[in-house]
Amino acid sequence: MNRTRFAPDRGLSTRMVLTMFFIGLLYVVFVGVLLVVLGSAWPWIAVIAGGLFIAQFWFSDKIATFSMGAREVTPEEYPQLHGVIDRLCALADMPKPKVAVAQSDIPNAFATGRNADRAVICATTGLLRRLEAEELEGVLAHELSHVAHKDVVVMTIASFLGVLAGIITRIALWGGLSGRDSRDSNAVPIALIVTGVSVAVYAISFLLTRMLSRYRELSADRSAAQLTGRPSALASALTKVTGSMASIPTEDLRKAQPFNAFFFTPAIASKQGLANLLSTHPSLDKRLEQLGRISAELNR
């Protein structure tokens, strides 16, 4: 990561490297199987895979902000938001990212962008309306930590393979890649093989990104609490934001759920037990417990 005053996290760095290694290995195997099974259709595979990767990586900031209905705002429009980010960037000794606001009552925030120059920190109007200044500082420090640790980039790349597998599954089921007439006896087995491989790849990449996602949220909480020196403010923000979700219509929460992996808190939290293993975030209790330990350490 770039030299900033955010505490380095070797555990996060190790997990990002391992995730990228296994995702890359999975990607090579996936494309290799498709080439063997589909034969002459390999140019289409290359075009689809390359085009989607470039689009998702190069325009990740624009895709995320557009999908959330967010827009970049000036200091004149949102002086408090810019003021907090200015102070945190000075404290962390890092360049200031672009600042955006999404007109949504769902109290949340996220960071996106392929590098520090393209980074965007976005907060919703629902978050700005509900939080006090110190609580907002904790949330924004959490998001800036994602930029400093570069885990946003890793999550963007890691999630690409799952997206590609899903698209190729649909194309295979439609018979578009086989290049054969639908009456060809080989068409159905090929479609089934491609679908089976795609489902397996999607499942493995899903689990890898979920494990990384949960750890990076705990890492960002730690880094934000240590940078600001106020873990209690971040804990208060977590409690307030999570509690406010109950007042948001379920339909709105479900629309925002696809962005859970990049949110400060999930729009719809997973239940305890096995479902929690598939969640994008650790449980609220686990996050508060960690912040409580950091608070005790700082007090000592």
Automatic annotation (TrEMBL):
Gene transcribed to yield this protein: htpX
Sites where the protein binds Zn(2+): 142, 146, 217
Keywords: Cell membrane, Hydrolase, Membrane, Metal-binding, Metalloprotease, Protease, Transmembrane, Transmembrane helix, Zinc
CDD domains in alphabetical order: M48B_HtpX_like
UniProt xrefs under HAMAP family: Pept_M48_protease_HtpX
Record bears the keyword Iron: no
Name this polypeptide is given: Protease HtpX homolog
Residues annotated as the enzyme's active site: 143
UniProt domain Peptidase M48: residue ranges: 77-292
Compartments it resides in: Cell membrane
Domain of life: Bacteria
Membrane topology type: Multi-pass membrane protein
CC cofactor: Zn(2+)
Cofactor: how bound: Binds 1 zinc ion per subunit.
Pfam name, any one: Peptidase_M48
The species this protein was found in: Streptantibioticus silvisoli
